[in-house]
Amino acid sequence: MQDQSEQRIIDDPTQVSPMLRLLIALLITLLAIGLGNAVLSLSTSTAGLTQIVNSQMAQSGVSHPVTAVLLNFRGYDTLLEMVVLLLALLGVWAIGEARYQEIAPGPVLDTFARLLVPILILVAVYLLWVGAHAPGGAFQAGSILGAAGVLLLLSGWRPRYPLMALPLRMTLILGPMMFVAIAAITFIIEGQLLTFPVNQAGTLILILETAATLSIGITLAALFLGGQPQYENEKSK
Amino acid sequence: MSNVIAFALVGVGLFCLGLYALIVQAHLLRKILAINIMGSGVFMIMVALAKRGADGPDPVPHAMVITGIVVAVSATALALTLMLSLSAASGSAKLSDD
Q1: φ, ψ (nearest 5 deg) of residue B27
Q2: What is the pTM (predicted TM-score) of this model?
Q3: In CATH, what number is assigned to the domain containing residue B57?
Q4: For chain B, how many structural domains are there in total?
Q5: At A236, is the pLDDT very low, low, confident or very high (cuts 50, 70, 90)?
Q6: Residues of B with Cβ-Cβ distance to A46 under 8 angstroms
Q7: ipTM, 2 decimals?
Q8: Which of B22, B66, B92 to mutate to test binding with chain A, by most A CBs within 10 Å of its CB?
């Protein structure tokens, strides 16, 4: 069955006839020329929003502009992106259960994972911390944490039942929930969603970023499982 | 400044290559890869065009791209899971014509 479908991939890369392919290629070349023209016709020196961002940096609570934009000026976007991540995971969980196979990793992968995972976690924490004043932040740190999780899953590690039930779900919603909670608090105090008071902005951003990092990392690792973890079976065992 | 335009043009090229593969290739895995290449092209255009100012790159497109990358990864994971369950249900990872 599997051989057959793999064979099909090799045999039949396309069902489109050569004439049609040529036509599509021509049309896309036209599109490429049009888009290229649009890029070339743009002015070569626009400051964009740099000056607006720079003029507000003092109020952002951090000194790196990308982090300031991400967590402070456009906090709404980041909140909704956390929800998109959660929705993607819910979609994956709705489709099916994770296929559990016993994996015996080779000695290289096993040792490699043992060595690398602590380093990856350390790098994630560093990136999270350094995001306040240099390139880094929640999404980068979350991706590294996700990579550590994927490495663990590849080397055959599976968390057991109690860890996969409530703690997993709490970690997944920690980021969005923290965003919503802080949005609600700032709404009550400042009168607007996610408007941080200048003095507390740095602390609030660090709290948000920590929660977001954990959620992003665990969400990415959980996506790699390809389905809802089957903890019910483990419980009955 | 011509560097910026060169990178943006490469981004346009990636986008168009991905679009071509998305239309021509029948296998869903290839389509998902094609969409990812299109997305990478868009990210590249945005990051390149952000660096047109005299005083450093514009942070707003950068913030959009960094979140965009993570969202693209999770959307790809969802698409791959859908593809796997389609191929498990129908025996083929291609969409039928009807």
Answers
A1: -70, 135
A2: 0.84
A3: 1.10.287.3510
A4: 1
A5: very low
A6: 52-53
A7: 0.87
A8: B66
